[in-house]
Amino acid sequence: MNDGEWWRDAVIYEVYPRSFADGNGDGVGDLAGVRSRLPYLADLGVDALWFTPWYASPLADGGYDVADYRAIDPVFGTLTEAEELITAALAVGIRTIVDVVPNHVSDQHPWFQTALAAAPGSSERARFWFHPGRGPGGAEMPTRWPSEFGGESWTRTKNADGTPGEWYLHLFAAAQPDLNWSHPDVRREHEDVLRFWFDRGVAGVRIDSAALLVKDAALPEIPANPGPGEHPTTDRDGLHDIYRSWRAIGDSYSPPRMFVGEVWLPDVERFVRYLRPDELHTAFNFDFLARPWDAAQLRASIDMTLAAHAPVGAPATWVLSNHDVTRPVTRYGRSDTGFSFEAKRRDTPTDRALGTRRARAAALLTAALPGSLYLYQGDELGLPEHEQFDDDLRQDPMFQRSGGVDPGRDGCRVPLPWSGSAPPFGFGPDGAAPTWLPQPADWATLTVEAQAADPGSMLSLYRDALRIRRAELGDGPMRWLPAPDGVLAIERGPRFRCVLNMSDQPVPLPTHTAVLLASGPLVAGELPPDTAAWLRTTPSASAQ
């Protein structure tokens, strides 16, 4: 890996701190827990850790409602512990990426509390989107923009005398008021936050909801078919000036800091504008994640992704899941193997054995593609989505705001199983409190302890894949090889091939000198359905 551009082909592991490991025994993951597991992460073979928000927060949305960017939430530890963790991780070759949530803050943030106490039209309110309502007495919301979490995106305030006041915008939950990025205080504060963490050794920043910051100040309704840049809340052209200023800050450090954006956009041409040389380094490739288990669909997504990134020289990113998405083992075992938030429903049946087989194969495909690889904690253990727990234990606002129609994201956020035969599976020290979300009782075979000694486990597959990936593959090109229908075959360099059989019949392997790794057993030298293999070839064979 090129240390100057380490992010181009890095393996980046997403840590959801509440659910990774509990160091103090209170049932909630923390920084001490992460630090105690650094040897595990180093053995796994990751290059960087991306931490979802660890800042002071009321945790109305899992920490994505930030009250203070310069303080660690007490449930996770202290700022000193964060600094020590950054240093300790780097000592074992692992960089740190932190999450920044620029679209909104917590309703407990000092700015918003001051704004609520201030009068309409005040400078304190100008940092947010306060606005009078429409209709008689201002009783109607300023717009009908929908919330990303379902329901309404405006909440009405009360005046000091108890009468109804202005409305404020929140594209997510009411506890997450949107910031007004045309206000200089907002830009200045976030630039200072970047410097605060870069000064502490953070190697990069992941930008949450990166396409939502800028709004149309005229507050128009959303057109039926908005053209490029015409949506009033998404992908506004003014965003790019913000990210250029951030890039300049990151580039002023030695080594330069990196930025990765969470950019959900269906328009590929608009998407890659964020990746121009003076803006973000990379952005998440959600198109690939959302595609169903279908060879033509995945090939189309790979082709589209690589073609879009090529003109701006940015590396692609590949990810199968994250803290918002149904885990692959569950998703790939369903009749609808794609993903969309709109389609999520409770009690959707799944075939775990089929899903596991496909998730193993998908792991090899994604790890073989050129660019950076993101791995969500627990996917290396083959954890399924936990869907069977009582509604009163669910904490995700997506579940609450949908009236229970959407099961929410709690199922992919369940604390990891480390050891033992019963919950809490070594998540914390002996005698620890119950985990903040319940673990399934049948996860004993999925613990790190159980899988570490099993060469056929999902954990062993990931360890082997990341080891070979580091030794064999970089950010170089790939090319497609001829293959039967339902089969994907790629070549990386003169001696490496990846073949994935998504058909319903076994297929012969192409010419090779050795099988480096396979997601499942070969049958009479053939590749069974829903199975992938990495092959060693000779330079002469690669020309075939």
Any key phrases for this structure?
544 residues; alpha/beta; eight-stranded parallel β-sheet; five-stranded antiparallel β-sheet; 15 helices
Task: Furnish the topology, listing elements before pairings.
Elements: E1 11-15, H1 31-36, H2 38-44, E2 48-51, E3 55-56, E4 68-72, H3 79-91, E5 95-100, H4 110-117, E6 130-131, E7 154-158, E8 164-169, H5 184-198, E9 204-207, H6 239-251, E10 258-261, H7 268-272, E11 282-283, H8 286-290, H9 295-309, E12 317-319, H10 328-331, H11 352-368, E13 372-376, H12 397-401, H13 448-452, H14 458-472, E14 479-480, E15 487-491, E16 496-501, E17 507-508, E18 514-518, E19 526-527, E20 531-536, H15 539-542
Parallel strand pairs: 1-2, 1-13, 2-5, 5-9, 9-10, 10-11, 12-13
Antiparallel strand pairs: 3-4, 6-8, 7-8, 14-15, 15-16, 16-20, 17-19, 18-20
Description:
The protein is α/β, with parallel strands linked by helices and 544 residues long. The protein is 25% helix and 15% strand. The protein is built from 15 helices and 20 strands. It has helices at 31-36, 38-44, 79-91, 110-117, 184-198, 239-251, 268-272, 286-290, 295-309, 328-331, 352-368, 397-401, 448-452, 458-472, 539-542; strands at residues 11-15, 48-51, 55-56, 68-72, 95-100, 130-131, 154-158, 164-169, 204-207, 258-261, 282-283, 317-319, 372-376, 479-480, 487-491, 496-501, 507-508, 514-518, 526-527, 531-536. The strands form 5 sheets. The chain has an 8-stranded parallel beta sheet. It has a 5-stranded antiparallel beta sheet with strand order 14-15-16-20-18, covered by helices on one side. It has a 3-stranded antiparallel beta sheet with strand order 6-8-7, with no helix packed on it. Strand 15 (487-491) and strand 16 form a beta hairpin. The longest helix is centred in the middle third of the chain and has 17 residues, at 352-368. The chain is globular. The chain starts with 10 loop residues before the first strand and ends with a helix. The relative contact order is 0.10. The mean pLDDT is 93.
